[in-house]
């Protein structure tokens, strides 16, 4: 399985490129904080159409609201992975494209999610956010590639790619091999592969 993730900031051209990446992946994954904060659709919106990926939400305590766009829009299948009790699986019965998958706390949770996706023949996963989810995939060595968008802006104390204290020094950083660097409108897109230790 290929696990790619992105972090973006920028303009419409960069956003269009993100929609192209959504189009070529089987599934897209975010954490519940992204759902609560941004209320995204997680669909592909290209000028000439495109394939909507299966939407995956990591929501350990089933906090995704019934009014969330990923629940109500009917545009694509949505799977919510939760640690919550089995009684909670009836919450979204009125939404035929929404399903709940309970995961035991006694397993490696992200590995279990990836194994279940493989069982469903979902082979490419686009992890779109947020920073806690990005950190979790990287810390567990599950991220394969990175797409990083940079806008021509300097800001202070902006959103962080990681939400942990593991990578504060150069020696603690993740090693990457650049695959592609390109300008997309005013943005720069870096595409890199994580170098994994054998």
Describe the model.
This protein has helices at residues 12-24, 32-38, 69-72, 109-119, 131-139, and strands spanning 2-7, 27-31, 54-58, 78-82, 98-102, 124-129, 145-150, 176-184, 187-194. With 198 residues, it is of the alpha/beta class. It has one domain (2-194): Dihydrofolate Reductase, subunit A (3-Layer(aba) Sandwich). It has a 9-stranded mixed beta sheet, sandwiched between helices. The longest helix has 13 residues, at 12-24. The two termini are 18 Å apart.
State the major sheet: 9 strands, mixed
CATH topology: Dihydrofolate Reductase, subunit A
Order of helical and strand elements = EHEHEHEEHEHEEE
**How large is the radius of gyration?**
17 Å
Q: What is the total number of structural domains?
A: 1
Number of helices, where a helix is a run of at least 4 consecutive DSSP H or I residues? 5
**CATH architecture descriptor text:** 3-Layer(aba) Sandwich
Task: List the defining traits of the structure above.
198 residues; alpha/beta; Dihydrofolate Reductase, subunit A; nine-stranded mixed β-sheet; 28% strand; globular
What's the gist of this structure?
By secondary structure, the chain is of the alpha/beta class. It is built from five helices and nine strands; from the N terminus they run βαβαβαββαβαβββ.
């Amino acid at each position: 399985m290929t696990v790619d993730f992105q972090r973006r900031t920028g303009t419409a051209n960069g956003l269009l490129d993100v929609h192209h990446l959504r189009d070529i992946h089987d599934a897209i994954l975010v954490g519940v904080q992204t759902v609560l904060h941004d209320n995204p659709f997680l669909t592909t919106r290209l000028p000439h159409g495109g394939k909507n990926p299966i939407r995956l939400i990591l929501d350990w305590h089933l906090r995704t609201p019934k009014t969330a766009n990923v629940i109500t829009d009917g545009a694509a299948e949505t799977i919510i992975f939760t640690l919550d009790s089995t009684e909670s699986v009836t919450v979204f019965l009125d939404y035929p494209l929404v399903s709940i998958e309970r995961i035991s706390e006694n397993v490696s949770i992200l590995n279990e999610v990836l194994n279940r996706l493989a069982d469903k023949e979902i082979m490419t996963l686009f992890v779109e956010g947020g920073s806690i989810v990005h950190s979790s995939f990287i810390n567990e060595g599950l991220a394969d590639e990175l797409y990083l968008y940079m806008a021509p802006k300097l800001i202070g104390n902006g959103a962080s790619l990681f939400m942990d204290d593991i990578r504060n020094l150069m020696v603690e950083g993740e090693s990457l091999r650049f695959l592609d660097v390109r300008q997309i409108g005013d943005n720069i897109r870096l595409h890199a592969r994580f170098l994994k230790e054998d």
